[in-house]
């Protein structure tokens, strides 16, 4: 048996899924966050049930990749029941999707989630009346408390056994007439097999100028496309508006009619959270509180991170002398094992201690609903770089680890924005590179110099953004962002989310990190450094660095923080300042900061933006690094 | 008086008259409940030509300046 959860972004659909299905989906306050769908198997009353959590969809018209995918899934798969989740406090808007789902003519249960929110907003819904009007069961829930979920699945279960089909709602007479004519023509063409939808649904979508269906018709029958255009024109003539607007406003009116007949409005409760935005979105206090919150956030991350890093590091490195004793220091097997240990340590002791508090903090900011406010505050600045406010989230994540940062670009709607933001996040110093800035620049040249590096980095990222957005001019007019109400997050959901993201790091990046460490150990074992140094001499000579530095640059591609550790090893001294002067240290750091992303990042980039664009990113960042480092050599 | 949403002072109540621009933006706005004829409250406006925040059917939506300038509104209050 298959149950599919469908609903608009932020309706709490993923919370329901997480609650019943274990830790498999992300919930988020950002529209369209779950681009992939999640599936989970559970047993309910002795039957095996597959629960599918589709991406949030505002409507069933395809203009967004996630929405198109969700609709394709609904049309393609054998579905026993659709659970349509609605944020009860936004019933009027949610019903617009419900009306479209009813047109699909599949068994349906309506779930009014966050019913407590609706009541505190003063929206009292007559459930029986709503169920009667729509012809489907209606269940109220409060998902993050688990309240009502049992009833919900009970209802879905009943519907799957005795399928009830909901009611259709007719549009205005003139629209219905055109619709009826088109429907008849479609019936004659016998298109039902190919599209697997009801004729009514197909006719509406064609009148609505739905890109996907129009393209399909274009492929099959160019003549018929002309007929469709005629029907659209016929509609447009009656109302003097475009046909898609006519259908969407018809649907809007229907939803509002239903809304008005089932809702009684009373006085909304006064709550503190309704006044929070007077501060958090204020033109002055908003930015002050943003700085304070980010300061606390990063302090929390570094406090927890450094607390865990040292003991974990010690734990792993105690195995090194032990294996050395057993296997002999010069042996091949020792070098491989030590590579594995260092790779494990790198992930466990350097990345995870910072990644965990970072993701926890981020999930907290996300689930409280603060992140959309950050996007709002930052939009004007990012706009100057050719991006939108939402891009600030992956960029902020970049200060932790580039891998989850690149993954986070999925929250952006346009492919162009995802690409540009991905490139920019690779240039943001991740925790490994921050270690280098602190370990080399701050340690040898002083904290002001380190501040200078961070500042320079932001300026360079902004300029790079500007360059990229000039190469790829924007087509979309700008940000359209829902600002949801504040919520108190639930710890269970927070941890589920953090775990899911950590898993992505563990599965994708960590194996590569370990592989990289092994390669490094082998290089050392066979003494290939000299050859590599020779090969990289054009770069080191150009930048005025000691020849021995060459090999560390290769290490840096494998694991960024290794550049510094290896620098000490390659130069054969414990105090770098004895062989490199201030200019050289600065030049080296600037180069390391910008050049080629690490292998783990490259792997994620290929997955997210494709191999061609990844190659571009590598070349682009490499050139920036060369140019800036050369300049640094001569002016610092 | 019919003007761009981008030029409306925060605190004003407005009625949507027309949405300029293509299918994509019209559909996206319609999904968030913004249609011609609807009433909205302009709640805030970001500094330095930042986004405009409107409240519509009990929901808050931030619209970048580019989007806001495509929405023609009539100021009621």
Please give a structural write-up.
The complex is a heterodimer of chains A (636) and B (77). Chain A is an alpha/beta fold and 636 residues long. Chain A folds into three domains: 2-161, Rossmann fold, CATH 3.40.50; 173-265, Helix Hairpins; 285-635, no CATH class. Helices cover 66% and strands 7% of the residues of chain A. Chain A has helices at 13-21, 65-76, 91-103, 115-120, 127-134, 149-161, 173-189, 192-195, 199-207, 211-220, 222-239, 243-262, 277-280, 285-317, 319-327, 332-368, 371-384, 392-397, 402-408, 415-427, 431-445, 447-471, 491-525, 529-535, 537-542, 550-558, 562-571, 582-594, 599-609, 611-635, and strands spanning 2-7, 38-44, 47-53, 81-87, 108-113, 123-125, 138-140, 263-265, 480-483. In chain A, the strands form two sheets. A six-stranded mixed β-sheet of chain A has the order 2-3-1-4-5-7, with helices on both faces. Chain A has a two-stranded antiparallel sheet with strand order 6-8. In chain A, strand 4, helix 3 and strand 5 form a beta-alpha-beta unit. In chain A, helix 16 (332-368) runs antiparallel to helix 23. Chain A starts with a strand and ends with a helix. In chain A, 48% of the residues are buried. Chain B is of the alpha+beta class. Chain B has one domain (2-75): Roll (SH3 type barrels), CATH 2.30.30. Chain B has two helices and six strands. Chain B has helices spanning 23-31, 65-68; strands at residues 2-4, 13-19, 39-45, 52-56, 59-63, 71-75. A six-stranded antiparallel β-sheet of chain B has the order 1-6-2-3-4-5. In chain B, strand 4 and strand 5 (59-63) form a beta hairpin. The longest helix of chain B has 9 residues, at 23-31. Chain B is globular and about 30 Å long. The relative contact order of chain B is 0.34. The mean pLDDT of chain B is 88. The A-B interface holds A 8, 58-59, 61, 63, 89-90, 92-93, 96, 121, 123, 209, 241-242, 244-245, 248-249, 252, 277, 281, 283, 372, 375-377, 379-380, 383, 388-389, 476-485 and B 21, 23-33, 35-37, 43-44, 46-51, 53, 57-68, 70.
